[in-house]
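For the sake of clarity, the format in which proteins appear in this thesis is described at this point. Each number in the token line that follows is a code from a learned vocabulary of backbone shapes. One such record is shown here in full, so that the layout can be seen directly:
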Amino acid sequence: MIAARVVQGGFGALLFVLMPVLASAAVRPQLRGRAMGWMFAIGPLGAIAGTAAVGVMIDNIGWSSIFLPHLPLAAEGRYAWLAVALLAIPPVLAWRRMESGRLVLSLLRVPGVRAPMTALWTQVTGQLAVSFLVPFYIQRYLDADSALAGLVLLVLPAGMVLFSPLGGWLTDNWGARRTAILGLAVPLAATGSMAWFGETWTIADLAWRLGLLGVGAGLFTGAQTAMAMAAAPADMMGSVSAALSFARQLGLGTAPALATILWGLTGYGLAGMRLAIAVITALGLGGLYALWRARTVAPLPTAPEPARGRAA
């Protein structure tokens, strides 16, 4: 199964790299934001279908039916298990010396690329960490089953589907940087309030916060991609797309690890959930600051209108 997941991840990385490049090349520059918005609206449709089915499958068939082992690691023996993180140091050092690593690091020095990459990492980390913790909160403190937890999580991708096209329109007509800032600020309000997880909350208390996360993701994702692609040198658009995919995958790896570590440090209690949410909110504020400080990219020239023939 591990080998199959490695192959799946490799082809998934290729797909994520190619999507922004193909979408950018398929439309005029002035429509790039809308193209990104629709592209990132389609993906969450799979999340909606999958999330609805997962809870029912777990309750009626068992966890093995879905083969998605997104469970926290057992953290026995106080904090000695944190030493496992040291195993990541050699691969990171080796990656820095590889051509792909040097490319990503060089792109971080390109004006207009560093801020979207940083913001994307913080946004994905925050969204996935919340999605990771919420089902445990629902089952432990709201005494709900897996099916209900899956249905509540549907609110997040539904918000992404509904607001991604709007995010694309705002990107083209209001500006990519402004739209990205708005898209990152909206979910920060939700995660900031989640830092006060309470045992008396209801499903509705969670649902509207998850809805804000989805709305923000819908506004943000296409805008930050368009912002980075607009800042990319003409001969490096594919490399910038790959770097954005790297930032996204880094967030996918950071989220469950960070949430599990912070949650486990307090014995997997409610205080640990609150601590994890507070930390990811702080990360999101860092991404928002990066966008706020980002150098504004000059607007792309409009396409010239075809010359009209003179009247005879």
In short: Residues 78 and 220 are 39 Å apart (CA to CA). Residues 68-77, 297-312 have pLDDT under 50 and may be disordered.
